[in-house]
Structures are given as C-alpha cells and as structure tokens.
Design goal:
The chain is α+β, with helices and mostly antiparallel strands. It has helices at 11-22, 25-44, 52-61, 63-71, 81-98, 111-120, 132-145, 170-194, 398-417, 447-465; strands spanning 123-129, 149-154, 160-166, 196-203, 207-209, 216-227, 234-245, 248-256, 261-263, 266-285, 290-293, 299-301, 306-314, 317-319, 325-327, 336-342, 349-354, 361-364, 370-373, 378-394, 421-429, 435-443. The longest helix is centred in the middle third of the chain and has 25 residues, at 170-194. It starts with 10 loop residues before the first helix and ends with a helix.
C-alpha cells in the first residue's frame, strides 16, 4: 500500500474495515439475495450441461437476448466464474463471522460481570437464605443435579457468585451449521476442479464403453417405462444394467431416478431415455384385418392386391417449415412410421402414419415434401427400440458434501432442540447471620418461555438454602 502524501496507511485498519464489511447485516443479506436470484435464473433458463438442445432452440428463437445471456454465462450459470465468486464470498463471510467465536472459548466471568448481568436481565429474583457459604454450596449441588454446569467466582470473604449453564452444546449448533456450509462449498469446488461427468446412451440389449474409465462397459439388459394412462406421459423409467471391467462383471442393479448404482468410485444414474429411431415391428389396421410389418420387409395385404413396406420411424413426429418430416425429440410423444404402398398398375405412394393421431397422415413426394391426406388405414402399434441415457459421474467431493450436510443437520438439531439456559447467582451478606441471594436468568428461547422454569428453580433454591 502506498500512503497518501503526508500520511500513512494502516494495514491493520484496512483489514479491520474489510472484516467489518463481512460482518455487516446488509452485506450478508445482499449476498444471500444475489445467490438466490442467480439460482432462480439458472433454474428457469436452460443449462448447456443438462439440455444443450434447449439452449440451441432458445438462441435460435431469441438471438439478441440469447447472445447477451450467453456472454454472461447464463446458460452454464452454476459453472460460471461469477457464480463461483459469489459462493467463495459466502464461504469467506462464514469463516470471518463464525470462526472468530468458537464455542468453548468463553471467558471465565468475573464477579462484576455476574453482578451486572443480574441487573440487566428481565428475569430476576431475590430471597433470604442461611449462611452464605452453606447457601452457595446448596445452590451449587442443586443446580448440578438439574443438569447445569456451574462455576464459582469468589468475591471476597463475605460474597460469592455462581454462573450456571445448561445445554451449552447449543453454542456448537450455531458454529457447526455455517461451518458445514463451508464444507459443502469445498466439496462443490473439489467436484468442479477434479470431477467428471458423461452420458452414455445405450439401446436395450446393447452395450457401450465408459469414457471416464477405460476398459469399462455398460450393458443394458432391460429397460422399462411406466406411463400415465390418461396422458401417456412417463411415470417411472428404470434400467436393469450391468457394469463390466475388461469382461468381468463388476456390479448389477436396476437403476431409476434417485436410485443410482455406485461401483469403483463411479456413480451410474438414470438421466434420460428415448427412442432413437429403431423399431422391431409395427401393426397396421384396416377395418377388416391387421398386418404386422418388420423393418424393410415387404408385406402383402390379403384381398387388396397391395404390398406395404415400412422403413423409417420418428418417435416425435413433426413437420418443419419447409414441409419435411423430422423428429422433434427422442421422446416418443408422437410416434410415426413411414410406409411405402405398391399395387399393380399404380404409382407407388409414400405415407407417414401417426400412431396417437390416427386421423392424421401425410403423403411424401419424391422431393420429401409432405401434404396432409385422409389415411386409408391406421398405425395401431409400434414396438420401438428404446435407449437408456445413463449418467456416469465421478465426484471426489461427494464425501465432503455428505459430511457437510450431516454436520448442518446436526447443527440445526442442536439449535432447535437444545435450548440454552443460563443463571447468574450472587450470594452476599444478609440480615443477621443469613445471606441475601440475587438470581438472574436467560434462555435462548426468550424470557417469557423460560419464566415458569426460572420461577421453579428459584423456589427450589429457596428451599435448599433455608
């Protein structure tokens, strides 16, 4: 630091000002609001690591706004440098605010401090007791039986003070919870720097290599989808999978959403599914008969002098702006099959038949352009080949995140279920050969919630010292 002309710069003062900034309520609230708003934006905007196709569609639809958002890293928000900087500030803020007051380092209270606390507290009581030494001993024994940790503070020959605390462990709750946040953020940083992720699309009965672990393969033995009867939307999808290392079976499990498989430091979880365009068989239905087709094989229709051949399958059929057929996604929302009709003396026709919209069909000309027609028959069923999108992740920060989450939960339980209580007691000279006892009380729940218990404790202290 270079001091201004004729003056000096205090490094200690600069550091102190920085620490005061982190301890500021306005700064803490503003930082949390910024992180919450950024997280909300990242939830609503498509993110490139999870949905690159949706990001591309957004950029095509809104090129101006999309370009600005991309420049700000909004399509990979949780991996952007500025979001990481916000989390780093949160961790540093937690360290500065909480680590300077570690539980267990409380200073021993002086006689004057105890006397001052009694005067300041809303809960106060006083009563006459026997000799001071006997009264202090009786109170000390009684509070020990009630679960209070006590310390005595001598105040001279005729006076004695006590400080008693119950559920002192609660102080660790307010320390453990923010510390756990730092540990969780550290786990996220370790994952960001050293973790890896890939998605392997494996068809039913097929296998695929794992890029993160050379020599390892994933085999999908079976893939099942349960749908809602009314809408046809997916209710549950699961994969019976096996993991091999150089041909040796390592692990086997049926995975589903939120139920992954862990093997060899990798985690395999159900990330997506769909139909890649392959199919096994299809059923065409006329009013008087049904015909089963297989890919590329001509099939005669009885009594109609007609031959039908099916080749292409689109899991989510749509018509583009230039009147061509394409699949909008890999999800089988609108399955469609392209068939070629041939009959003697007539030109061959190519049709696209939709399974769920049976009343709709399209003819395709030689240039591939579509036109709507009334279908002469309908597509009754398609046995499509589905694929399972298996996410493979390596997360070395996972133990830190789990440990931090458990520590945070333990801290919250300490804060909400262990209510700290504290008593300050001053035993001094009283009338005759007796003593006068002054008591002040405090609770983390507030003085109203503690009043009944405080009054009961005072009444019992009066009994044991009379």
């Amino acid at each position: 630091l270079r001091p201004p002309r004729g003056g000096e710069v205090s490094v200690g003062g600069t550091i102190s000002s920085t620490m005061d900034l982190f301890r500021s309520v306005k700064f803490n609230v503003g930082l949390l609001v910024a992180i919450i708003l950024a997280s909300a934006v990242g939830t609503f905007l498509p993110q490139a690591p999870e949905a690159p196709d949706r990001v591309a569609a957004f950029l095509r639809a809104y090129p101006g706004v999309g370009g600005g958002l991309r420049a700000l890293g909004m399509f990979d928000l949780f991996g952007s440098w500025w979001f990481f900087a916000l989390l780093t500030l949160l961790a540093l803020d937690t360290v500065v605010c909480r680590f300077r007051t570690i539980p267990g380092r409380e200073k021993t209270e002086s006689f004057e401090t105890i006397e001052s606390n009694i005067k300041e507290k809303s809960l106060r009581a006083q009563f006459s007791a026997g000799p001071a030494a006997e009264a202090a001993g009786g109170i000390l024994s009684f509070l020990g039986r009630e679960g209070y940790a006590c310390e005595t503070v001598p105040g001279g020959a005729a006076r004695q003070a006590l400080a008693a605390t119950r559920h002192r462990l609660q102080g660790w709750g307010s320390f453990a919870s923010p510390t756990a946040v730092v540990v969780i953020l550290a786990g996220g940083l370790v994952k960001l720097l050293f973790g890896a992720h890939e998605v392997v699309d494996v068809p039913e009965g097929g296998r695929a290599a794992i890029g993160l672990r050379p020599g390892w393969e994933v085999l999908v033995r079976d893939f099942t989808v349960e749908t809602y009867g009314e809408t046809g939307g997916p209710k549950r999808f699961a994969t019976l999978m096996q993991v091999f290392d150089a041909g040796r079976l390592v692990a086997e499990k049926t995975i589903s959403v939120n139920d992954p498989l862990s093997a060899g430091g990798l985690k395999f979880y159900q990330e997506s599914w769909g139909a890649g365009g392959a199919w096994r068989s299809a059923v065409l239905r006329w009013p008087d008969q049904e015909v089963t087709l297989t890919p590329g094989r001509p099939q005669s229709v009885a009594g109609k002098r007609l031959t039908v051949t099916a080749d292409l399958f689109a899991p989510d059929f749509t018509v583009t702006d230039d009147l061509r057929a394409r699949s909008a996604s890999w999800e089988p929302r609108e399955p469609a099959l392209r068939v070629r009709l041939e009959s003697p003396g007539r030109s061959a026709r190519t049709l696209w038949l939709l399974q769920r919209s049976a009343e709709t069909a399209f003819s395709e000309d030689a240039a591939g352009r579509l036109g709507p027609i009334v279908p002469p028959f309908r597509l009754a069923a398609v046995d499509m080949v589905l694929f399972s999108g298996i996410g493979v992740g390596y997360d070395p920060g996972y133990p830190l995140i789990v440990g931090g989450a458990l520590a945070w939960l333990a801290g919250m339980m300490m804060l909400f279920y262990l209510h700290r209580r504290k008593l300050w007691i001053l035993v001094g000279p009283g009338p005759g050969h007796g003593s006068r006892v002054l008591v002040g009380g405090w609770s983390s729940q507030g003085h109203l919630a503690y009043k009944r218990e405080f009054d009961g404790l005072v009444a019992r202290m009066r009994e044991v010292t009379s």
